[in-house]
Design brief:
The chain has 477 residues and is an all-alpha fold. It has one domain: Amino acid/polyamine transporter I (Up-down Bundle), CATH 1.20.1740.10. Helices cover 65% and strands 2% of the residues. It has 18 helices and four strands. The strands form two sheets. Strands 1-2 form a two-stranded antiparallel sheet. It has a two-stranded antiparallel sheet with strand order 3-4. The radius of gyration is 21 Å and the shape is globular. This is Amino acid permease.
Amino acid sequence: MLRRKTIIAAEDRPPEHRMARTLGWPHLMALGVGAIVGTGILTLIGVGAGKAGPAVLLSFAIAGAICACAALAYAEMATMMPAAGSAYTYSYAVLGEVFAWVVGWSLILEYSLVVSTVAVGWSGYAVGFLRGLGVAPPDMLTHGPVFSGHLFDGSFQLVSMGVNVPAIVIIGIVAGMLMLGTRESAWLNTVLVAIKIATLALFVFVALPHFDAANLEPFMPFGFGKTMGADGVERGVMAAAAIIFFAFYGFDAISTAAEEAKNPERDLAIGIVGSMLVCTLIYVVVSAAAVGAVYFADFSASPEPLALILRNIEAPGVARIVGAAAVIALPTVLLAFLYGQSRIFLVVARDGFLPPALAKISRRGTPVRITALTALFVSIFAGLVPLDQIAALANSGTLCAFIAVALCMLILRKRAPDARRPFRTPAHWVVGLGAIGGCLYLFVSLSRLTQISFLVWTVLGLIVYFAYGMRRSLARG
């Protein structure tokens, strides 16, 4: 269970398992920005405002600071071990096989549910855009099942049935793009990221003149820590931060591109750290403009909060532009995370935990089989699970991965202090412990249902490992 994997250089792998190096640091920066700036600011800003009120600004700051610590740890580990697999690979090389399995199992949760969440968010904007044009799709085909009540007190029940068809369709389209080629997908992603940033700049330009300090009062209506409201909803700055945390991660998808980067030792660090800095600035400005322009309660329940804010300040034309841009540009998040998930599955298959045939690379240099399997898997969640429940559960998997990467960095600083580190995390003990402590606090701030669901998922993963994975591992020799 504690055996550790030796990292094999991409060039030393069999030809059928070798991916083409086609990505430079601009592609990786665009991949990171495309992954980070998406559902979090376009849709979850409403969910966060509903939990924290105007203090959602503070929630963004807290989540961003924790993610910054994790990003620095990722940058060091990714440049030391430029191999696909992200936190799974680092854990396998530093902590041992059983820990790597748990982290990989958590990454499956993270990436799969992020893709599903973003697809659901895209669906909300797409349907809103169509309705603005006078086209009204059948309601039951635009959202998954709707539930009410609580799972543990006997009030949990199905309110209405439905299948989110637009979410399933967009996953299929993005998966098809990835199968065509990594470089082609990267260039299209870069163009769409530019459209997305221009759209957010337009929102700020229009909304900021309507900033009213009265909309920020009371600033912290639900308190700082997690509290249970009379309606059974957990609120507070930290409850919002635990959800908004979803808005910041995405840089970890860059580390899965290690075997396709032209110069991984340089490009990975620039992509990870650079994308975090750019996105933090974007989030602070956009969220300030949003909560200042309209009172938070007026947009907190909307699936398209930025477009709703623009309509409320009598800018319907700009609202249609934002809605259209979201429909066009949100798939960049899908592309980044579906890309990352397929690479995680690829490495897991290489290690013997999945059928090795799934790790085969096509003539175009892409893992077609594993990408198709990943798309099928996440489509089930996107079509049948509500947005807020998906996002919270995805966060728990990410928190586990971030803790593992920070721990790996600290262990290697003690175990191999003189090892070559193309990127060295500054104040590594402060950053590493900050990432670990912050992620643990965010996990405690998640809802009880999310915490229990994650623990159940982890136990299920351990059962699969002992019953199947441990015997299949190629590291056994």
